[in-house]
Amino acid sequence: MRSPLESGLSAESIAMTFSPLPLIDSFGRVHNNLRISVTDRCNIRCTYCMPESVQFLPRHDLLSFEEIERVVRVAATLGIDKIRLTGGEPLVRRELPGLVARIAAIPGIKDVGLTTNGILLPELAQPLKAAGLRRINVSLDTMDPVRFRELTRRDGWEQVIEGIHAARRAGFDPIKINAIALKGVTEADLLPLARFARENALELRFIEYMPLDVADAWDRSKVLLAEEILERLRQGIGPLTPAADQDPRAPAVDYDYVDGRGRVGVIASVSRPFCGSCNRIRLTADGKLRNCLFALDETDLRALLRQNEPNDAEIARAIRDSVAGKWEGHEINSSRFIKPERLMHAIGG
Ligand code: SAM
Ligand code: SF4
């Protein structure tokens, strides 16, 4: 590997690139959180995320584990200390615990998390835990197996429930459940999910439906708003109070049930955008760095990783430049909004 000075970058540029300055954008937001999509493939087909028939990336387009590890090593020198693996469905990528172990061992990385649909957790929860995975979020939108099939176009509800229990047995705590809230579709699921979460000590978070799905399927009238969700929970379960230990930079706003039996959150990306405190960047499975979920531009890290003699200074500079160029926030609530071409499963939610 070439040293930074052999890379053709000036000494000043290298000093800037590897300086201990945080990854900061022009709005003063410091970025310490990298979400890595390890595949665009999935073993189900959620209607709000991908079409029934999809052209997936050819395998050689995916970053190898070595390439992902290299990006994380460089990102860690820039202040990234939290990693979340996602997809597509991350558990369909073979040997995922091996990647978790590599990332968890990188100096500076304090936290490795995973977002999964849970179907493969019965067999993978234990190896993932042993590999150093710290946090797990399981997506589950309904307690009704028939509605699960309608939403995902596949069977699998029982495996997800078994996967959640397997995660508990493996020692994950807390376990978070992500449920997407679709008006007129999943309203009947709010209370059964909330009861299941309370009975099993799971932290449930409802996510507002975002325009990242198949062309033109999203429209504002299909978004079940955070306030409506909270009101239904108050009426159907009981009073809620804002969580005292709320992380102000987290996208979820959490509430505790006043009866002391659990916590529930809302991720109000549409009705209460949290762009002002965003600390995240994203790496797609094919190695494109995105500075926002809704970004229209990408930085091609794979091209840098696959050049004859890749060098870390160039990768670091590309990451810094991407963060520096980040916009103020998405424009979902304005007529200026332009939907990115990539669908959710190809970005990594
Ligand atoms: N397959 C994994 C899973 O489902 O958890 C990880 C990838 S998935 C894209 C990550 C999260 O994005 C899931 O919780 C899913 O519900 C959410 N999601 C997908 N499409 C969405 C949309 N259009 N709006 C809001 N959230 C969405
Ligand atoms: Fe697959 Fe997750 Fe998208 Fe559902 S939300 S289709 S599980 S990637």
How would you summarize what this structure contains?
By secondary structure, the protein is an alpha/beta fold. The protein has helices at residues 11-17, 65-77, 96-104, 121-131, 145-152, 157-170, 190-199, 226-236, 301-305, 312-324, 344-347; strands at 23-24, 30-31, 33-37, 82-86, 111-116, 135-139, 175-181, 203-208, 240-242, 253-257, 263-267, 280-283, 288-290, 299-300.
What's the CATH class, please?
Alpha Beta
Work out the radius of gyration. Answer: 20 Å
Shape: globular
At the fourth level of CATH, the homologous superfamily is Aldolase class I
Query: What composes the largest sheet?
Result: 12 strands, mixed
Task: Describe the 3D structure.
With 349 residues, the chain is α/β, with parallel strands linked by helices. The chain has one domain: TIM Barrel, CATH 3.20.20. The strands form 2 sheets. Strands 9-10-11-8-7-6-5-4-3-12-13-14 form a 12-stranded mixed beta sheet. The chain has a two-stranded antiparallel sheet with strand order 1-2. α4 links the parallel β5 and β6. α2 packs across α10. The longest helix has 14 residues. The N terminus is likely disordered. Iron/sulfur cluster binds next to α11.
